[in-house]
Design goal:
about 150 residues, alpha+beta
Length: about 150
């Protein structure tokens, strides 16, 4: 886990009955759906009004999760999201599933997101106003987030 990471964005996770496996805990594949929903709310909140969704996309290039402690059906969980690296064409999100009442980290996920030109179907430079919005939201400088 990255000690210096700060999580301003937090989203309550809704655990459904169908998310639980035969062992009584949330199936590992479900975590990625929860992280995906949190990524969506994070991007909408951070880049609100800046994204040109018909021209620019953000796609997952790589995703990895470390499962530490199972989530059980009746636990209240929050998904926390922060940007930990900001490159030229990509940025890296750190997300974690946290037990709401104790702050216990159940799982941690890193996702490399690539900014994508929808017309040309190729990766593109992250627009400067996107970078600035991320830095402002995170309360960190470009230098702190640069690779």
């Amino acid at each position: 886990m990255i000690q210096e990471a700060r999580f301003r964005h937090s989203m309550p996770a809704q655990i459904r009955f169908s998310d639980v496996d035969q062992f009584g805990h949330v199936n590992n594949s479900v975590y990625f759906s929860l992280y995906d929903l949190a990524k969506t709310t994070y991007v909408k909140e951070v880049l609100s009004g800046r994204m040109k969704w018909n021209e620019v996309g953000i796609v997952v290039a790589n995703i990895n999760a470390n499962f530490m402690i199972p989530i059980f059906f009746m636990e209240d969980i929050n998904i926390e999201t922060t940007t930990i690296e900001l490159g030229n064409k990509s940025f890296t999100l750190l997300q974690r599933a946290v037990k709401a009442d104790t702050g216990e980290v159940k799982c941690e996920c890193r996702t490399v997101m690539v900014v994508f030109d929808l017309a040309k179907q190729i990766p593109m430079q992250i627009p400067e106003d996107y970078k600035q919005a991320i830095c402002e939201y995170e309360g960190r400088s470009m230098e702190e987030l640069s690779k």
